């Protein structure tokens, strides 16, 4: 396959950046998008040019680090699929592919296709965890959890924290990410003791870092984990519950 690739190049967060066009003559349909960038970088290095910077890690659709915007869509043309699992068979021979970083004011560009997603880390640090007493681990069946409850928690815990939902939202909202975080921790009994404090901390942090929910639904369309749109309702629900129960030890 011969592909024309238009890539965003930006040396640092202080530079304006621009799109630069390259050609790869020996791409293969079974290549993933990161492998295409690997091939392009090999060409650039051979020519004495700087390689394109992009985030990559597991390449198994688990870690969420590789996300970029492809032809205007976070991750790429295949719905509910992370960028590292998007393959060139989705494109025709001779296609023109445009690659750029996730676009959001909360995601400043570090270099080329790399963005700083630490705003999401700050939301997690504000309460997206369960505190446990150190010591001997309890037996697995000490606290029994109904099957439906466990399945619901697992469905919402599938979020890989890639940030595609934020990049897709016109307002740069994190409601899908934040809602999935709050829902899966509030569903299980281990997360209930800190439910109110967690909601107050996470929602406050999300409001500081990201924009308001647009209720357009672009977030759910690009989510690699298939987090349902119902997750966004959890943000206001958990915030309201925390406000009502503020004086209680929850």
UniProtKB/TrEMBL annotation:
Family annotation (Gene3D superfamilies): 3.10.20.30, Alpha-helical ferredoxin (1.10.1060.10)
InterPro entries named in the record: 2Fe-2S_ferredoxin-like_sf, 2Fe2S_fd_BS, 4Fe4S_Fe-S-bd, 4Fe4S_Fe_S_CS, Beta-grasp_dom_sf, Helical_ferredxn, SDH/FRD_Iron-Sulfur, Succ_DH/fum_Rdtase_Fe-S
Organism encoding this protein: Kocuria atrinae
Protein name in the entry: succinate dehydrogenase
Enzyme Commission number, as recorded: 1.3.5.1
Keywords: 2Fe-2S, 3Fe-4S, 4Fe-4S, Iron, Iron-sulfur, Metal-binding, Oxidoreductase, Tricarboxylic acid cycle
Family in the record: Belongs to the succinate dehydrogenase/fumarate reductase iron-sulfur protein family.
Cofactor: [2Fe-2S] cluster; [3Fe-4S] cluster; [4Fe-4S] cluster
Domain 4Fe-4S ferredoxin-type: 150-179
